[in-house]
TrEMBL record:
<comment type="function">
    <text>Purine salvage pathway enzyme that catalyzes the transfer of the ribosyl-5-phosphate group from 5-phospho-alpha-D-ribose 1-diphosphate (PRPP) to the N9 position of the 6-oxopurines hypoxanthine and guanine to form the corresponding ribonucleotides IMP (inosine 5'-monophosphate) and GMP (guanosine 5'-monophosphate), with the release of PPi.</text>
</comment>
<dbReference type="GO" id="GO:0032263">
    <property type="term" value="P:GMP salvage"/>
</dbReference>
<keyword id="KW-0660">Purine salvage</keyword>
<dbReference type="InterPro" id="IPR029057">
    <property type="entry name" value="PRTase-like"/>
</dbReference>
<keyword id="KW-0328">Glycosyltransferase</keyword>
<dbReference type="GO" id="GO:0046100">
    <property type="term" value="P:hypoxanthine metabolic process"/>
</dbReference>
<protein>
    <recommendedName>
        <fullName>Hypoxanthine phosphoribosyltransferase</fullName>
        <ecNumber>2.4.2.8</ecNumber>
    </recommendedName>
</protein>
<keyword id="KW-0547">Nucleotide-binding</keyword>
<dbReference type="Pfam" id="PF00156">
    <property type="entry name" value="Pribosyltran"/>
</dbReference>
<dbReference type="GO" id="GO:0005829">
    <property type="term" value="C:cytosol"/>
</dbReference>
<comment type="pathway">
    <text>Purine metabolism; IMP biosynthesis via salvage pathway; IMP from hypoxanthine: step 1/1.</text>
</comment>
<feature type="domain" description="Phosphoribosyltransferase">
    <location>
        <begin position="15"/>
        <end position="162"/>
    </location>
</feature>
<dbReference type="InterPro" id="IPR050408">
    <property type="entry name" value="HGPRT"/>
</dbReference>
<dbReference type="GO" id="GO:0032264">
    <property type="term" value="P:IMP salvage"/>
</dbReference>
<comment type="similarity">
    <text>Belongs to the purine/pyrimidine phosphoribosyltransferase family.</text>
</comment>
<dbReference type="GO" id="GO:0000166">
    <property type="term" value="F:nucleotide binding"/>
</dbReference>
<keyword id="KW-0963">Cytoplasm</keyword>
Length: 177
């Protein structure tokens, strides 16, 4: 790792994240009352957030799956090239799909992912993101459920990483340097 980076101050606490996950889970429960949902976590960053949110989705039929894609590599800037590293295990045709992402930044990866999944004919596709960084947006895309809006910094913690480091921080911070 580049020794010029250090972790900044706490931006969002673990307690704030838990509270917001509870609120979003309740909203998803209300929005999909009486229906089944497939929650698709985007590896690896969204795992902690997804776990918190699904605990608060009180529907009879909630299933999960995972995808992995990348547009960063070992950099703090998106390369703009999206690669699917792991695809879904099951069909999503006719299903309500909720993509759970750690952060909507440039929007390139999520925009690509939505189009990719729409080609499989789901009933609906919604996006639930822990963080939204609108200043980083390079394409038109809005998440349906957003935990927090953050400023244009390189965010780490609570699943978000820099070159696979800092995912284990129990709060949201940023790199400075």
């Amino acid at each position: 790792m580049d020794n010029n980076y250090t972790v900044g101050t706490v931006m969002i606490t673990q307690e704030q994240i838990y509270k917001r996950a509870e609120q979003i889970g309740a909203q998803i429960t209300q929005d999909f009352q009486g229906e089944a949902v497939l929650v698709v976590g985007i590896l690896k960053g969204a795992v902690l957030w997804m776990a918190d949110v699904i605990k608060h989705i009180h529907l009879d039929d909630v299933s999960i799956d995972f995808m992995a894609c990348s547009s960063y590599g070992a950099s703090t800037k998106s390369s703009g090239v999206v690669r699917i590293l792991k695809d879904l295990d099951n069909s999503i045709e006719g299903k309500n799909v909720i993509i759970v992402e750690d952060i909507v930044d440039s929007g390139i990866t999520l925009n690509y992912l939505k189009q990719y999944l729409e080609g499989r004919h789901p009933k609906s596709i919604k996006v639930c993101s822990l963080l939204d960084k609108p200043e980083g947006r390079r394409t038109e895309l809005e998440a349906d459920y957003v935990g927090f809006t953050v400023e244009d910094k390189f965010i780490v913690g609570y699943g978000l990483d820099y070159d696979q480091k800092y995912r284990n921080l129990p709060y949201i911070s940023y790199l400075e340097g």
